[in-house]
Amino acid sequence: MAWSIDGRDPPKPGSVPGVGECHIWAVPIVDDDRWPGLLDADERARAEKYRPGPPRLTFVASRAVQRLVAARYLQRDPSMVTIRRGCEHCGDPDHGRPALADGGPLDYSVAHSGSWLVMAVVGSGRVGIDLEEMRDLAEVDDLAGMTLAAPEYARYRALAADDRSTVFYRTWTRKEAVAKLAGQGLCIEPNRIEVDEPVATVPHWWSADPIHVRDLPAPSGYAAALASTVEVAAVRLCRPHWT
C-alpha cells in the first residue's frame, strides 16, 4: 500500500526544519539486512528477546531509521548517532521520549502500525506523532465511551454509524500524538485529553505550552496525527534517502 509522498527529494544534509515546519519520514517496515548493524549493543540484546517476526522487525526498523534520519540532519555516519532514552518524569531508562544526545534543537517522534513507520522531525519546540491502521472494531462505541472526552463523545454519538470508526481513529491518533509529545504515554485517562483542532486541552502539569494538533495525510486504511508545541504551518513528507 503506497504512501502518497509528494515526490520531492529529502532535505539536504544538515537542513534542519525551520520554525513552524515539520519533516515527516514515511518508511515501509521491511527486512533490511543492513539495519541490525546500526543498533547499539543494548538494542541488539533487546531485539534478540523478540521472537523472529513482525515485532522484532518493527523494533529493529524503528531504531535503525531513527539513526539513518538523524544522521542526515547531523551530517555524520549513522553509527555515530547517539540516542538517549529515559523518562523525564520518573527517570526510568526503559521508557520515555527518545532524543538525540547532541542534536541541538532537533526534536523528533516515532510511530508505527501495520507495515509503516513514521518519524516526525522539528527544529523548534517538541513534537509527537501517531499512526494507526484502522480495523473494523465491533466494540468501537464502547471504546469511544471510555476514551473520548464528554464533548468529543457527544459529537461522536451524533454521527452516522458508518462514520464513527473513522472519526474514532482520527481522534485516538491525536490523543496518542499529544501523549507522546508530553512524554507521558497514556498514564492518564484518555478522556481527560481533548484534541479538537487546532489546540488540545491537557492537564496543566503535562505541558506549560499550548499543544497544537492536526491530522496528517496517510495511506488508505490508516489514520495519522501530529502534535507540536510550535504550530506547524508546513508539513514536508520525505522520501527515505538510503533506498
Mean pLDDT over the full residue set: 89
Gross morphology: globular
Succession of helices and strands: EHHEEEEEHHHEEEE
Category by helix and strand content: alpha+beta
Helix content range of the residues, please? 25-40%
Number of strands: 10
Low-confidence stretches: none
User: Which sequence of strands runs across the widest sheet?
Assistant: 4-5-1-10
Radius of gyration: 18 Å
- Termini distance? 17 Å
Number of alpha- plus pi-helical segments? 5
The main pleated sheet reads as: 4 strands, mixed
| Strand percentage | 15-25%
Structure description:
The protein is an alpha+beta fold and 243 residues long. 28% of the residues lie in helices and 22% in strands. It contains five helices and ten strands; from the N terminus they run E-H-H-E-E-E-E-E-H-H-H-E-E-E-E. It has helices at 41-48, 54-74, 140-147, 150-157, 161-182; strands at 21-28, 83-84, 99-100, 107-113, 116-122, 127-133, 199-200, 211-216, 222-228, 234-238. The strands form three sheets. It has a four-stranded mixed sheet, with helices on one face. A four-stranded antiparallel sheet has the order 6-9-8-7. It has a two-stranded antiparallel sheet with strand order 2-3. A hairpin with a 2-residue loop joins strand 4 (107-113) and strand 5. Helix 1 runs antiparallel to helix 2 and helix 3 (140-147) packs across helix 5. The longest helix has 22 residues, at 161-182.
